[in-house]
Amino acid sequence: MSRILIIEDETSIAELERDYLELSDFEVELEEDGSKGLERALNEEFDLMILDLMLPGMDGFEICRKFREEKNTPIIIISAKKEDIDKIRGLGLGADDYMTKPFSPSEMVARVKAHLARYERLIGSGSPENEVIEIRGLKIDKTARRVWIHGEEKNFTTKEFDLLVFLAQNPNHVYTKEELFSKIWDMESIGDIATVTVHIKKIREKIEFNTAKPQYIETIWGVGYRFKV
Ligand code: CA
After folding, report:
1. What total of structural domains would you count in the chain?
2. How far is the CA of 10 from the centre of ligand 1 (A)?
3. Which of 93-107, 173-187, 195-209 comes out lowest in average pLDDT?
4. Assuming Cys at both sites, which of 33, 67, 99, 196 could form a disulfide with 177, CB separation 3.0 to 4.6 Å?
5. How large a percentage of the chain has pLDDT more than 90?
6. Ligand 1 centroid from CA 209, angstroms
């Protein structure tokens, strides 16, 4: 059963939210003080948080900001603040959704379910069935063909991905451009080997902090490239 924390100081609204969620079989905890709410959110296990903005103790923006430094649990802001600037601020601080009061409780329940499902898919994406390579902050999911550097996903073209995976799977081995070209482009080495150089450059721009001092793909002058571990 999913556990939801509601931080809301207006009792009638908090109870309305709770009643609808309990009807959908969620376990619900209420907290009316902002700083106590944050403390509970950080120290207890919840699957989702519903957050008001104007609260005693600490406002919802501050709760959102501090909570996001520690946890990725979904947050839905439900507030009387209707201005775009508040929505932009809330979403910018890491809230996943924003609803304005008065709201439809059934829609709230639907959104809660959607965010819980999305979050489960997200944390399940690195499941053991997927073949994953992880090296110093670089994560490559071979099954899903996705790449993250320090948690941030980067988009790779097919050949960039194939080249990165080939090098990462054969670390500390120096390959010439000709060898890489024939392995990845699947042809006799008659193509333009400058293609390899261009692809290495693009991969570095995505995964290296400083492309002049690569941490992952090293240039061996006059020979080729090597993936460092
Ligand atoms: Ca309030």
Report:
1. 2
2. 6
3. 173-187
4. 196
5. 76
6. 43
